[in-house]
Here is the input.
Amino acid sequence: MKPPSCRDPDILAFLDRLTLDLGVSVDGSLAGRHRSPLSGRSLEFAQHREYVPGDDPRHVDWKVYGRRDKLFVRQHRQETNLTTHLLVDRSASMDFGAGAPYTKFAYACALAGYTAYLLLHQGDAVGLSYLDGGVSIQYPPRGGEDRFDVIAGSLETVTCAGSGRLSSGLSEALATMNRRSLAVLFSDLAENEDALLPLLRTAAAAGIRLLVVQVVDPVERDLSLSGNRVRFLDPEEVVTPVTTARPEVRDAYIREFAAMTDRYARELMAAGITYLLASTDQPIPTTLARMTGA
Amino acid sequence: MIGMYFHHPWFLAALPLALAPAVFHLLALRRSVTVRFAWTHLVRRALHHSSARRKLVDIAVLVMRCLLIAVCLLYFARPVGHVDPAVRGRVRLTLAVDTSFSMRRRGSEQPVFQQCLERADRLLQFLEPAGMQVDVVSFNTSVRRETPGPVGSAQARAAVAALVPGWSGTDLGALFQWWVGHAAAQDRETGGRLHHKLLVLTDCAVHGIRDIVAVSSPAATGHQDVLLWHPAFGGPNGRIRDVTFDAVENGVVSVRCNPADVAVGGQALLSTDGRVVDALIVDGMRDTYAFAWNPRLPRGDTPLEVRLPDDILSEDNVFRCVYRGASRRRLLCRIEEPFDVRGVDSVRFYLDRLEGAGWEVTWAPGGTGPVAPPWTLELRAGLRAMPADDTASGRPLLVFPAADVDVPSYERFTEGVEFIEPRAAVREPFRLVYGQDEAFNGFCAQYDLRNIEVYRTWRMTITGSASGWRPVLYFNDGTPALAVRGTTWVSAFPLDRTSTNLALKPFFIGLLGYIAAHAAPARTLGAYEIVGMPVPLNDYPRIVVHPEGVPVSPDTVSVSPEGVRFLKPGWYQISGDGGSQVIAVNPDPAEGDLTLATPEHVRRVLRAAGAIGSMSAIGMEREGDLHEAVAWCLGREYAGLLAMLMALLFAVETALSRLGGRLV
Here is the structure.
């Protein structure tokens, strides 16, 4: 199965009309589209502040002085660039594609590629890390015209050969990130929620802005496997429970799965983390549009 | 104690197949699809909710399916429960096979009798493993035991295989009477209550049931059951009856028949030598129908057949008889007319017309001298004297004396009759009055004799009743006008045109034909003999199959002092010094009456015979009928019970499957 390309001209043209705006200020070293918590020289007014000695007299708002007979200085919001870390889950569970044309990993790579294009197009710096038992391949965040080719080339050639737990790789990746940077995680989150959720909550509390895109296959959503008898093999823990795809089992599974995604959505939102459930049978532009809020 | 017997025991060998669902289930476990799945822990959690109930349903479905297959196999094995040997010994089974003629009729695939024999043979095969003893009898109008007593199946099968259909009628009433008496005798011998069973293989034709008036045999004390096992029944069987021949004008022979049992619209064919010469459609408007046939060259015996093409019986739809042509219609004429009259006023002219009606007329040369035989009838008209050498020939003779007859010349053969010349001639013509001969009167009824003018020239007196003369026509003053004795007919009026105009009427030719037919030594045309009825042999010791001339075989005829009985339909010729006659032999016309008897009718006759117990009837067409008969003989069949059990298991299995059991 050929993985989806992240250089589709139609999708790229579609992305030219979108903006990934997280709505919060971020730190950055380069001027960009994102607001900075620091006052700067941008055109966007932030607030007035009473003049204190040492302030640059060029910032005094003389019109206010005329009205209030006090010196105030104008402070402008500084626009900075965004440092984004794209984290792609490369664990074995991502290599699953029964109900859609692509595996979850291929779908996640395509999403990551187009996200990189979108951010780079906005002038942001984009880095890429693959997560499995650790952080296997890491491209530091950088901007520039040629950065997309580097990231896209990597995403198009990488294989899903990882092993180990997502939580350990994610923990390692988050530890290297600066506060106020953005981390976009593409993963199926196929691990115990109790292990992943504290990790993500801690990162959010540390000031890392997180966008979690949970990539699932349609079969995983509704257990619509063909055949009456199926042996489910856990790809990571290597246990082999045997069961049958009975209607009542299927119904119970659908309920369990919905409960799992609901919990992720509820608790991540509470922690200020943006959560998005993406199914591999959905068109990639649709998912991208949901990511950008378009 | 109930034992079990199976019609098709080989199905039991397939009973291990009942484990097939379990085997399939285990194989399916091995053939399961393996999927690497990220959410196995969720699946495990989902399984945890319903595993206990699911396992119960699974096992229940598995058991239902195994049971369903097992019961299905048992159903096809057709188990029959029968009593154990100790109890079975009290059952007396009698197998009665109908060997009447109607059993010979065509069936859908094979003759009905053959079908019955085949079914009886299979029945006995089924009874063999159960060790059932069978008494075999055959019956038609009487009952004949084919086995010395109750025998095993093998011996019974041999007895059944040796049966052949007969030619006589059937009488279920006689069978029932015999069986009741036989059962009573068995009860007396054993001193206990036996269970008597009578299985009758018969076509149940209504003709075979005679109402029983009185029962002389003592009633049996044991229980008695009767099962009528009959082949598929066809519609009414048509028969042609009462075939007669009439010679009419212009050489045309009229063959009259009574197709009383032929359905309206049915076609009957008259054929000779395999060639259809006439056909008629029965319209239901008349009792008697007539074929018209012109023999053209009436020489020798001509076999005739009246056939119903679509008859049910294969062999009784043909009425065979023989039409005798020239040998029966030769007429020797000796006529002395008072005047040498020629033309239409001449008797000779009208006698000439007989040739056109198929008669061969020989004119005696010069009125005297012998004429070589044979001839059917010698006509002497207007002869004044009878030559002495012709008076004792014994040939059929019809005499019309002349007005001035030389009476003494006739006295040699007219002994017992006096001819007296009236003293005063009556100038008024007499009318003719019929006598007591019904056959002759029936013949005359089709003509109007009132227009015949007869002048009496003599008074004929029959002098003694022992003389054998029988008057068939009288003058209206009560004196005989025409009398017959044996083959000699004499009249009291001349055949002179001046004394009577009889010769100028069409009646005259018919009268000559009637006299010729009754005066001939051979049998009447259209002779019809019934199989089994004795025909007196008299002086006809030689019997051959006609027309081949092959001497008959012993199985064809039965010769006894009473005569000969013909056992098969066909043509026979018996001949001897007295001549010969051809006999057409057909079966009992009653056998053609194939209306199916109602069970109520049979039951009534059975009760009249003194039987107590049940009576039932089944067909013979379906395979299930055979099993039903076997079950009736042996005991109870469990097919119905198993069918209900199958339906129940199927319903439970379906319900459980819908409940969640989807094993395979």
